[in-house]
Amino acid sequence: MNVEEQIREIVAKITHVDKSIITRGSTFKEIKADSLDVVQALVAVEETFGIEIPDEEAQKFQNFGDFVSYVENRVAQEEKV
Amino acid sequence: MSFEGKLALVTGSGRGIGRAIALKLASQGADIIVNFFRRRETAEQTAKEIQALGVKAEVIRANVGDPAKVDEIFDTIGNKFGHLDILINNAASGVGRPVLDIDVKAWEWTMDINARACLLCAQGAAKLMEGRGGKIVSLSSLGSFLVWPTYAIVGVSKAALEALTRYLAIELAPRGICVNAVAASFVETEALKFYFDEGLNEDNLPVTPVGRMVTTEDVANVVAFLCSEEAFMIRGQTIIVDGGFSVSSPLFSLKKKD
Question: What is the pTM of this model?
């Protein structure tokens, strides 16, 4: 499973929505994710990928795609190191 | 009041009240462990300001709502320093909802961070305070007994924190550990803005009979006092820092006839 699929699974589990409705363009509001869901998703993703996503960065995410892209970049950087 | 040579852990001390407490204790000579969860930048900044005061600062990231992470905090302190003198249970979170909209997830999240973490941190701290005594101060809120809109879960968690403070104070007294709490009214922090979506302005600014809001420094001063030897005989209490807000009658806010 690639990074995007793993994050989609995590977010779907936390927000109790069908993962098929989560696209890269979906906003957190459209996924019905409240602020607690977002924090819990961030924490779960951090633990899954062994990275830290500070709030300063997370606040820039406009949609699911931004979240995925950020994590993909971070994971790629970690792999280089 | 000097904390020279003492080591203090302040949970949630990257910003707000925790930051003010960390800086206050550091200004009196304490080395500080700055704990944060979501904002590394602010925690690193607090640590820099502490170091500028000539004491040591260590930054530890951990969600205190997660028991495994709490264990990690105390393992790290134990391995690196071998002891702890002061624990400030300040980290808090919450979900602002009317009671009928509270679900299990929001309840558990809030209670785990605001109440259970105080127990787990006290347990971890007590081991590192063995044979040297110590001070534990937890941050409560007037919302533990006053009802504010959408504040139910946090209010309940703070009531639990205050009850826990009494039990800890009695059971840890034979170990030479002083345990108390501080409850502040509205303090101008980011957390307060969270509960006032429309923002604070002159019309809704919750002033006190003193004529101004409580500052983070007002709270830090009282916390520091409770950590001092001068407060040795205060045990299991929740000290209110609210400029008289909670004891003033609403009659005082009525406009006088000209």
Answer: 0.90
